[in-house]
Write a structure and sequence with these properties.
Oligomer: single chain
Distance between the termini: 77 Å
CATH class of one domain: Alpha Beta
Number of strands: 32
CATH topology of one domain: Alpha-Beta Plaits
Strand order of the largest sheet: 1-2-7-28-27-29-25-26
Radius of gyration: 28 Å
CATH architecture of one domain: 2-Layer Sandwich
Number of helices: 8
Largest sheet: 8 strands, antiparallel
Structural class: alpha+beta
CATH superfamily of one domain: Sporulation related repeat
Helix content: 10-25%
Strand content: 35-45%
Length: about 525
């Protein structure tokens, strides 16, 4: 038995020596495979919410060079609850005053301090954003809604129901549902393009409808837009917009935009300038393109009141403007007092009018002016004159060549620059008040954003939100971190909220947050096969 044992040991040693001689790397292959698997798992985990949350991904190839991935992460915490925010305050003393008054009226409230925990990643450098007075914690939303009504009846008109996990300044377990389309422009044999709703400035259309009309294999919603008539013309892009090399909407100050050209994309700071020059050399700035006179959504224009800087979701005004209208606007210009001149496609004045509101020529344009700018136009322009209209678009300070393949979608703010989280919330008009910054940038909302990887691949992402059991949304910071984890080195935010939509192969794949379902929007970005 002892001899047999020694023999077996010798055989085993010789056997291992033979294996290591024939396949010297064999023993390390499993180790390398395990390390690679662990590395892939690390890369595949989104850096949002608490650590070690469950996450699943499913990927499908839509076309050569195009993949679609669904990501589910996290879960609804048993500690989550509905509450009522009574009001937001800049200072703690203001919040305490309201809390004391509420206590006298029989309410027990808490004061929530809002920190700017990620100030090193944004141009908003305040360490403390403000304070929110809150009442109640309910598992049943209806009970919170009942409390909200009671508070409003007692004079607290700003009171509103919210969900604990929507506050992006606090840790959470989620959940999240994300949809990602990645495009390799060197492999994709189709067209990457944008589209206005119904091909016009006026009016709105769902992304599903636009995708069907274009026969697109995938599409997402695009930039911000005018939603209600009191802010302008519904459907009008609130920012720079270019179609086939033609600027059809002016920029909002210097905001971030997405430039699409020959299947390539760039993300950067967009600025636009538009001017008119008479044949006598008189020169004037054109305030806007294809919008309602005097109403500038998100501000950022010439001589706007109360500010010429971007101010998101605010409508500025200007009583004296020159506006340019072309075939993208609609059939007629807006009616009203002022002065208009009609131009043919060569820029020759073929008609003048002492009022605004006339038919647009099929190939040509109309200059429409109000206030003192109407006087300028009337005094200097006559039938037969030839006008030179110059439209310039700049991306990161460099003028864009307006080729027929160039398209541009406005948005904001910038999320990533050179692989680093650099959120330009203040510069791009999302920090005009602490209250707005908290509720728009730090809150978790449905979002749509775009990114560019170092290898040139494009990322288009939507995340659902405002749905406690399915997906709570992301803050600006979380959106940037998601893009970075997906490999993006440049990134920007697009329109979100109820507008966030992704369509893949004629199917609405995300879950828009509006109760009425998919929201008609201003425009979209689409992948169309040749």
């Amino acid at each position: 038995m002892q001899l047999l044992s020694i023999t077996l040991k010798i055989f085993f040693i010789l056997h291992m020596l033979v294996i290591s001689t024939i396949t010297p790397g064999w023993l390390n292959l499993n180790v390398l495979a395990e390390e690679k698997q662990e590395s892939n798992q690390t890369q595949a985990t989104l850096p949002i919410g608490k650590k070690d949350l469950p996450e699943t991904r499913t990927t499908k190839q839509l076309a050569k060079g195009v993949t679609y991935t669904q990501i589910a992460r996290g879960y609804q915490s048993k500690k989550s609850y509905y509450t009522v925010d009574v009001a937001f305050y800049k200072t703690k003393s203001q919040a305490k005053t309201t809390a004391n008054t509420l206590q006298k009226n029989g309410y027990s409230s808490d004061i929530h301090k809002i920190k700017n925990k990620h100030s090193q990643f944004t141009d908003v450098k305040e360490k403390k954003i403000g304070y929110v007075v809150r009442i109640g914690g309910f598992s049943d939303k209806k009970k919170a809604e009942k409390l909200e009504k009671q508070l409003k009846d007692d004079g607290y008109e700003e009171a509103g129901v919210t969900y604990s996990e929507y506050d992006g300044t606090t840790k959470t377990t989620g959940p999240w549902q994300l949809d990602v389309v990645e495009v390799d422009p060197d492999q994709f044999e189709g067209k990457l393009t944008n589209s206005l709703a119904h091909g016009k400035i006026k009016g709105r259309e769902t992304v599903s409808s636009m995708a069907d009309r274009l026969k697109a294999i995938a599409g997402i919603n695009g930039g911000y837009f005018v939603f209600s008539k009191q802010d302008g013309i519904p459907g009008d892009p609130a920012g720079a917009y270019m179609i086939d090399g033609d600027l059809v909407s002016e920029g909002v100050g210097s905001r971030t935009g997405l430039l699409l050209s020959n299947q390539q994309a760039e993300i950067g700071e967009v600025k636009t300038t538009v001017s008119v020059e008479t044949d006598k050399g008189d020169l004037a700035s054109i305030d806007g393109i294809n919008r309602e006179p005097g109403l500038i959504r998100s501000c950022g224009g010439l001589d706007d009141q109360p500010t010429t800087k971007p101010k998101h979701d605010v409508t500025c005004k200007d009583k004296a403007e020159i506006l340019l209208y072309n075939q993208y606007f609609g059939k007629t210009t807006p009616k009203g007092e002022g002065y208009e001149v009609m131009l043919n496609k060569e820029g020759k004045v073929i008609q003048t009018y002492s009022q605004r509101g006339h038919s647009l020529p099929e190939s040509g344009s109309v200059l429409s002016a109000t206030g003192k700018q109407a006087d300028w136009l009337k005094e200097r322009v006559s039938v037969g004159d030839k006008l030179k209209i110059t439209k310039k678009v700049f991306l990161n300070g460099k003028q864009v060549d307006k080729e027929s393949q160039v398209n541009l979608v406005g948005g904001g703010p910038q999320l990533l620059e050179n692989g680093q989280t650099e959120i330009q919330a203040d510069e791009e008009g999302f920090h005009w008040s602490s209250d707005f910054y908290y509720h728009f940038a730090q809150y978790r909302h449905p979002r749509t954003f775009a990114g560019i990887k170092e290898n040139g691949n494009l990322l288009f992402v939507t995340v659902d939100g405002r749905q406690p059991k399915e997906s709570i949304g992301l803050s600006f910071f979380e959106s940037a971190e998601v893009l970075k984890s997906l490999g993006a080195v440049q990134g920007m935010n697009l329109d979100g909220g109820g507008s966030s939509t992704m369509v893949v192969e004629n199917q609405l794949v995300n879950h828009p947050s509006d109760k009425t379902g998919e929201r008609p929007v201003s425009d979209g970005i689409f992948l169309v096969e040749n």
